[in-house]
Structures are given as C-alpha cells and as structure tokens.
Amino acid sequence: MHYDYIIIGSGMAGLNFALNAAKKGSVLIITKGKLYEGSTWLAQGGIAAVFAPGDRYAKHIENTLEAGAFHNNRKTVEYIVKKAPAAIRKLQQLGVIFDVGKKGKPALNLEGGHSDSRIVHCGDHTGRSVEEVLVKKVRANKRIKILENVPAKDLLVKNSTCYGVQIIKKNRIDNLFGGCVVLATGGLGQVYERTTNPHISTGDGVAMAYRAGCELKDLEFVQFHPTALKRGKDPYFLISETLRGHGATLINSKGELLMNGIHALKDLAPRDIISRVIFEYEKRAPVYLDARSIEKNEFIRKFPSIYKKLRAEGINPQKQTIPITPAAHYSCGGIATDLKGRTNVKNLYAYGEVACTGLHGANRLASNSLLEAVVLTARVPRHEIKSATIPDFPVPPHKRQKSTATIRKQIQNIMWKHVGIVRSRKGLDMALKQLTELQKKLPGATNRESITTSNILTASLLINKASLRRKKSLGCHFIV
Description:
There is one protein chain. By secondary structure, the protein is an alpha/beta fold. It folds into three domains: about 1-220 and about 330-390, FAD/NAD(P)-binding domain (3-Layer(bba) Sandwich); about 225-325, Flavocytochrome C3, Chain A, domain 1 (Alpha-Beta Complex), CATH 3.90.700.10; about 405-470, Fumarate reductase/succinate dehydrogenase flavoprotein-like, C-terminal domain (Methane Monooxygenase Hydroxylase, Chain G, domain 1), CATH 1.20.58. About 35% of the residues lie in helices and about 15% in strands. The protein has helices at about 10-20, 40, 55-65, 75-95, 125-140, 205-210, 240-245, 270-280, 295-300, 305-310, 370-375, 405-420, 425-440, 450-470, and strands spanning about 1-10, 25-30, 45-50, 110, 120, 145, 150-160, 160-170, 175-185, 215, 220-230, 250, 285-290, 320-330, 335, 350, 355. Strands 1, 2, 6, 7, 8, 9 and 16 form a seven-stranded mixed beta sheet that branches. α3 (about 55-65) crosses α4 and α12 (about 405-420) runs antiparallel to α13 (about 425-440). The radius of gyration is 22 Å and the shape is globular.
C-alpha cells in the first residue's frame, strides 16, 4: 500500500500536519495507541503567544533564549515566536475555543520564565481541548486514513532515503510505503522511573531515526518538571506552573518558602533550577506546593482538572498543602531538523517533541512546545517517492518472546539515578556500563513489547552518551 504522506504519531504535531497534508494528497496516520493517548492530551498550561498590549516579540524571544541558556538557534526562535499569534487564530478557525478576557481577546496566563502574561489556554486542559478538535477534523477528512494501536517497528531506509515504515498489526509485521514519511512520535519520558509522560512516550521516534542514520542533537537536555503530584505513578500527574502564576508557592517541610534567596523569579524561576532545588531538598524531607491562598471558586474555575485530581487523591487544596516531586517531562533535543521539518535522510521529516529545531536550547520555556508543533506543521513538503521507484524491503517474522518488563524497570531506575536531574561523571560512566550489560540481555526486537523495550534502551544510551560528551553544566544538563 502506498500513500502520499505517512505520519507516525497522533499528537498535535501529527494531526495538524495531517490536516494540512490532506490538501495535497492521501494521508495515513499510524499511532501505537489511540489517537488521543499522547502527551498533547495531557498538556495543561497552553500555548505561548504575544497578545498583551505591553508585550513584545522581543520579550518572548529573550525569555526563550534565557530559559534555553542561550543554546537556542536564534533564527528559529524568532521565526516561531513571530508566527505564534497567527497559529492561534488558525486553531480558532478550526474550532478550538480558548478562554477569553476583556473585549473578547484571549485570556492570558503567566508561567515560569515568562516576563509577561502570554499563555493562551483552555482552562487547565488546553492540550485536550486542541486534540479533541483536531481528532474530530481528522476523522471527518476522507483523504486521511487512521491506523490505531499499530506500533511502528522501523523506518524503511536505503541509501539515505526513506521509503516508508515497517509496522506491527495483529501480530504480523508489514511494510507501508509513502511519498513523504513524518515522525511525530513525541517524547521519551518513559525512559525514566518518574515521568509525566504517557505510557506510549518510549523514545520510539528517536530510536528509529538513529537506526535510520538520522542526525541527532541535544539529547542530554531532558527537562524535568518541578511539580508533579507525589501520589500514584506512571505517569505522575502534572500540576501546571500556571498555579504558581496565580499565587501558589513552593514550601519546605517546615512551611518556609523554598525559593526565597535562590532566584529572582522565586516560584516562577526556570524549571531546571526549581527541579534541582526540590531534588536536593527531597533527600532530607518532603516538598509541597501551597495553593491555600487561591480561593476555592477561582481554583475550580481556572484549574478544574487539577482540582478534580487533588480531591480524588484526598487532598483539599484550600486546607492542605500538595506533596510534589520533579519528574521527567520533555526532551529538548531530538532529531535534527530545519524549519521545514527536514532531516538529513531524504523524504523523512520530523515535527514536535521528537524533533530538535533549536527552539528550546538547553531548557524549554513553558508553553513553547505546543507552539512549535502548530507553527511548523503548517508547511507541508512535496510527496516525492513514487510507488514504482521503491526497492525491496524484506519483512521479518513476528515472534512471541519472554517478557522484558524487568529489563525495562532496570533501565528506568538506572536513568533516574544516574542520568537524571543531577548528574556526575562517575554516575554517567556507571550508567553506560549497566545499560550496555542490559543490552546484551535483551532479546531480538520481534514483537511489540520487545521493540518498545529496545527503543527505551536505545534512547537511554543515546541520552547517556550525549551527557558524557558535554563536560560542563548547561540548562537541563547539570553536572556535579
């Protein structure tokens, strides 16, 4: 079967690209879970864009560069920031209903690292609201075919040209061919013991791209969100920093303000700084988020999802402090691409979290992720590969194997302990040795579980090796 466009992944990047690509040709979306099971669905905060009268593009650009430790690609930052308002309006035209303030203009929240209120949002469930609209539009488009619960095994690449993708469907491995192949597979948070990422965020895109010969960049920069709810796990429930933008504070076990005297922005300091402070303090005692200053009706109105989750966990945020911990949240690095999504492999493109455009630098600024996904997927490349020019790709047999769950847990433990929020040369060397030993124990990747574990291990080794190459601390990468 041959399609003009094959998209692997169904978050905001994949779905928005699909809608734009359908104007030019036939589209196939492949997703390893349901359409709505990615990180976009879980995104709370919103999309950063300059709308406030006193705000300026220059401020948003500078905030992005500062958060990224000036490791960003400035031209990329400028391009995406200046395209943000138009991208928001395009989502509105599709049917996304953002919260509005005075005179019908977008209501804007303040988040960590931002100098101004510029977060366009839908309550505290922006990702879900956007995803619902995109899914509805995609399902209604007759030029788009959808394959759910179908994991990708590998990209079909010869002579640095991508011709399609190998998939697993109903315990069978098949080849699918496309004129243009897009990776929109999201992040890799599941390589860590603690993460806010959903179960499907196992680094598949990065691992497949690596095997295909793609250039990878900045994988050492894994952002940890400082305020995940320390109840339950896998994934940890995220408590948006917008809550801190509305007055919630970080406190220690004695009730003292945790960030006083540490950073000028205090509770709204960049995520890497707050995560390290909490990580170190947690070695001695718990850390809490104090939202008792936020009146109940305002809390419920502005943060309905968070309030519902807290109450389900037996926490009354008007009377009790909220136990929190940092958790792996976002990969700032990934497959190196330009602003058109092009990789160094012909006919292969990447968008969203799996890609590294240079927007985020060494540490992503809050609410710039959905922004990047929607802006860059507006430009659709030509579908170049024709069915008559496709070489032969053998199809391996599908085999059942012993469970790799134990190996997966060992990988996650090693990564959290040695390649996490705070790293050391000794710890990174130890992790490399341990991960390499696990690689020898892993069976061949011939079914869904073994492929996923193999991808987690590949992504972990790539992060580990990238961290070893960077000798000095920068942004999310902190060496002691």
